Every structure is written in C-alpha cells, then in structure tokens.
Amino acid sequence: MLMTVGEIKKEFVESPYLQHLGIEILSIEKENTRIKLNVQDYLLNTKGTLHGGVTASMLDFVQKMHLRSVCNTRCVPISSTVHFTAPVKTGAIYAEASIISSSYKTAFLEGIITSESGDIISKGTGTFKLIRDE
Q1: Which band of pLDDT confidence, cut at 50, 70 and 90, is reported for residue 117?
Q2: Who contacts 117 (Cβ-Cβ below 8 Å, separation ≥6)?
Q3: Tell me, what DSSP letter sits at residue 44?
Q4: Residues 6+ apart with CB under 8 A from 51
Q5: Which helix (H) or strand (E) holds 74?
Q6: Alpha-helix residue ranges (DSSP H) falling in 14-83
Q7: Could you give the CA distance from residue 124 to residue 128 in angstroms, rounded to a whole number?
Q8: Domains of the chain, with CATH numbers?
Q9: How far apart, in whole angstroms, are the C-alpha atoms of residue 91 and residue 102?
C-alpha cells in the first residue's frame, strides 16, 4: 500500500513512545530526514547525561522514517550500530539520516546526532529489510 509522506509522518507522530521522548519531526526530504529532541531530566542516566538508549532510539527512528518516505514501503531493522562520541546534558539535539545504498530487499542508512552547537553526539548505521507489497 502506497502512503504519502504526510501519512508516514502522521503514523510516526502518533507513536506513544516517540511522544514520550518528545521527538519533533523537522523535515522529510529526498536527501535526508531531520528530527529534534529537547533533552529533559527524565531522559538522563545516573551520570546526568542523556541515556544512550535515547540516542539509539533517535537514530533508529530517523533512519526508518527516512527510508519509508523515500522508498514508500514498510521496513524492519536487521542490524544497528551506534557510536557514542560525546555526552550531552541539556539543550536540543538533532538527528538526521540518509541512505547509503539500497537494493530491492535491503537498505543501508547512516545517521548522525549533533548538539545545538554542531558537535557530534553520536553516529550510527542501520541495515533494514524492505517489505514490499507484491
């Protein structure tokens, strides 16, 4: 079933988990998709920095949303790799994703999370299986 970018965006916006995190969709373009998260106290770990699971979730979300909007098909993750490069305690962070390569059944994406000042917080790659309606 083909979906418009608006329908895909609506589906993600209505996710209770993403609402809980407070993720905001900034843009969905052919080249990349961009989201924002304002760091909140309830998202911090015991060291007072943003929990790594939040950044991993952001990368998974932005990659999947970008892939679905570009390929217009459902997808499921096969693997995900996250590299944590700097801690963050406050402010907004931004994640964006782009497609590295794709075939009929599989796609490889990269994502990056940056702080408001442009510092790299984390980077990640994702491999996704494309589920095509045949």
Answers
A1: very high
A2: none
A3: B
A4: 43, 44, 45
A5: strand 74-84
A6: 16-21, 52-71
A7: 13
A8: 5-131 (3.10.129.10)
A9: 34
For residue 71, the SS3 value is helix
Q: What are 21's two structure tokens? A: 């995190």
Structure tokens at 113: 């999370």
22-25 — which CB contacts under 8 Å span 24+ positions?
Answer: 23/58, 23/61, 25/65
Paired tokens of 60 = 């998974």
**pLDDT tens digits, one per residue of 54-102:** 999 999 999 999 999 888 888 999 999 999 999 999 999 999 999 999 9
> Which of 59, 29, 45 minimizes the C-alpha distance to 128?
59
pTM of this structure: 0.91
